[in-house]
Amino acid sequence: MNVLFGLFSAMLIGATPILLAAIGGTFTFYAGIFNIAMEGMMLVGAFCAVLGSFFLHSWFLGILCAVAGALVMAGIFVLFAVRLHTDEFLTGIALNLFAVGLTTFLLRDIFHVKGAFTDAGIRAIPAVKLPLIDGIPILGRLLSGYNAIIYVAALVTVLAAFVIFRTRFGLRLRAAGYNAVCLSSSGVPASTIRIWSLIVCAVCCGLAGAYLSLGSVRLFAENMSAGRGWISLTAVILVSGNPWGIAIISLLFGFFDGLTVFLQGSRIPTQFTAMIPYVATLVSLYLYSVRKRRQA
Amino acid sequence: MRKQVLSGLLGVLAAFVIGALVLLFQGFNPVTTYGALLQYSLFSASGFAATVTRAVPLILTGLSASIAFASGPVNLGQPGQLIMGALGVALVGLFVRLPPVFLIPLCILASLLGGALWSGLAALLKRAFAMDEFIVTLMLNFIADYFALWVITYPLFDPSALSPMTRRISTAAWLPDLGGVNTSVLFMVFAAVVCWLIMSRGRSGYEWRMTGQNSLFARIGGCKVDANYVRVMLVTGALAGLAGGLMVMGGPHRFVKGLGANYAWDGIMIAVVAGSGVSGTFLYGLLFSALQQGAIGMELVTAVPSEFIDVLQAVIVLVVVAGRVSLNMVFDWLATRQKLKESAE
Q1: pLDDT score for B289
Q2: Do A293 and B130 touch (CB under 8 A)?
Q3: CA nearest A102 in B: which residue?
Q4: What mean pLDDT is reported for chain A?
Q5: ipTM of this predicted complex?
């Protein structure tokens, strides 16, 4: 029983950053932007979270800094891809490289360390006990007592589904991706909608980054996003942007990610268990193509 | 072509100015910093030799990405293919005993095969199951990374070493230094010339580029688009594998943990900034190599951390790529105005 509880919580912990980044990515996906900069936004967010939490002595200000950092990245993306009409793919690649370079440089420049920075002065995001559910025997143990960001992620997913499919902004968002010229000629500039979608994406990626560095650990390591931005991009593509689908895929990846931690004590070498999330991505791509072929 | 050179020069210059502003903001002196950077990369014999040697993996992975991007396949798997190539050389170098005349070509072949195997896997998945090579190659990077780590931690572990690495490969497979420059440079230059010939003089290069620009047009024109796709993937994988192989043969003579990690995305970065041209890739490869080599000296002389170069490189990429588009718009505007004037007269 304890094993199952452990696996379940590991699944939620692993799923959260991917879910948040993918929800951000789905906004840009619907707006018709080929946005691969989630990885970089997340990384900058993770760094800024540590920066804010360490110097301002508050996890909340840390989260705000993370969002601000990711927004700066989104600003650069807007400047190049939307304003200067640079290729979105190339801009994304350059931004991801920029994020790696900038964070390693600043890690050295501000904290004078190489590799990773950790300090007792970094305030972590606290865990939250859900008021009513916490009292219920099994459900309370399953769902209560997690990091605050995990609940935020769940809320964001529901909100995203509502905003994209039930509001005027969502309609315009989908129109920007479906037929930008049509949207622009009906009086709503598609580029404005795209800029908003990037802003939403940056906020989500900033939260994901803050979770990485202030969630279950309190440290920033070079390149600590470790491909999660790419995996979240895969999740978006696999379900064509549907937030509920993204939630399921993220939980699946979270499960495999949890499995990785879980199998560390076993006889399988850690190098192979660490491959699991990436192999799972390949397998899900394979299943996706099989399903698509059956439909056609 | 002249436009490309102009926009490249302007972009690099602008990026250096932005870098200088960052340095000023951080309280460093940009003149001494850039001076040290140049001194330790280009304007000293040992620095220049090191720059040229360092350029080998950069240019080879850059060529790999360039040829892939120019021909259509989005092969982002250079890091993984490099690792597999290096692993191939490590295997041959550790277990085959031959004189250098035979062993060196065999090692080169192993590195090409190692890289091509890894990119071929992605090509196979694409052809058989229509899985996008863009994500597949990325995921294969992580898998190759962990696989190599396992290989050097368990089966090929050197018991006398403190961190995971293999034993030294047979000395017959070592590529010697000539006046500070490693002979792996020769293989790199040869590969670059071959790439240039294929891409701008050969028929297959023409077909590949055509497919990259408009695959429907190429198909109607009679190119075997699918077969070409597999060929491009194999060739680009082999190039990245060669980069890894030469790194083992010329450098530490063994597979050490984290080999190629610093070059992981550099090839893609160079291809992007060079606009996927072969000669551009060569030149930007040298530039980025000079920056990275100079960074070590820069850190020695000034207080600027060498990671500053990572920022500068990314700024160069952004500014040059965006500048190319904007400059083209300016050029088009100028040309139109010229034409209008002529027709008015």
Answers
A1: 94
A2: yes
A3: B311
A4: 89
A5: 0.85
